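Example complex used in Figure S2.
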Amino acid sequence: MNQDRWLAVLAGELDRRGIAAEHAAPVVAEAATHLRESGEAPLRAFGPPEEYAAAVAEGLGPARWAEETRAPAGGIRLDARGIGKGYGRRRVLHNVDLTVRAGQVAAVVGANGCGKSTFLGICAGLVGADHGRVRVRGTIGYCPQYHGTVDFLRPDEHFVLVGAGRGLPRDRARAAGLAAAAELDWDGATRTQARHLSGGTRQKLNLVMAGLGEPDVLLLDEPYQGFDRGSYLDFWQQVWRWRDAGRAIVIVTHLLNQLDRVDTVLDLTPKEAVPC
Amino acid sequence: MEGRLGGRGPTRSQRKLACCATFLPVHQERRTQWLKGVLDLCVLATLARRESYGYELAQSLGAAGLGPVQGGTLYPMLLRLQRTGLIAAHWRGGDAGPARKYYRLTEEGERVLRESAAGWASFVADVEAIMREGLAE
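Predicted assembly (413 residues):
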């Protein structure tokens, strides 16, 4: 059995055992990496795919059934109704609705310039809408696509600053920030000022700040710009953790490979009849 | 074997291999059984030195004298250790090389490792004492 075939059978076996894609995909990826690096034959390294799938299922334990362990969606956290917005004569958003409950993830997709960021800004209360209304139950954490950091402050000073706005004392804000940074495989205790951080690292800082103080609603505007593949996977794990903790999450994204795992997809690509 | 050991003389890992080979195959089966009870502790101890990924772990455990550790055994164990909170994992890289899942010891893992190391030492001492007495007869 060649490598690709073995990996395909393994993926099928994991699926058959009801292991959620979010657990199965990393297992297959890790086995593929091992095989590539070791040059070993898959049957020799891992045994028959059926048996390996069984061992994986045992290793994962009950957490493998994402649907069963997942708490049912709670009350409505964000409700946007009939949102309309134009810039000058150009109409960007027309009669857009979105409802997100506690424990749900919504993805906002669409071509460039179709108002994804504008819509998120309206949800965050940063941009005024021409029509419609947004209701939010609870607190909001917002992660912008660019900017959002203060050039001359270190990451931990950002944590303290944002934490203060959310009622966190210095120590707790700093500790929470460092812990969240570690989840993204980043050492937030670095003495580097924000202006000297790489683009990807600055986005990690933005993301950590959005989650500080455990807001009920997280609004994330393509927060993974500049992330390498590893950080990107860590980011989605963070999203599922937030979801499982009962947060309501809205993510603006142009990457479609995660869409089968979100609860709602809002496509802002204009219909042909409506000029964008 | 002869070819590998010839020339510049055996490397450290080759000497180890040759030394292990003298145990084979009589002790191999028993060693495999022993390993089942302590492989997770060996993994924790290896990760206590520094974070690592699956293939590297398998190699360093092998080089440390445990013989080949198969991926089919190692990765499910890593999943279990991760689930029970003794280790944490992160994906890293992927732009140039392959994306690897790196594991590191958590504080809980450190605590369990310390306790288990003490327990293992006392177990070994007990077994040795029994054997010593038996052989002295």
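The two ends of chain A are 52 Å apart (CA to CA). The beta strands of chain A are 76-87, 90-101, 104-109, 131-136, 140-143, 217-221, 248-252, 264-267.
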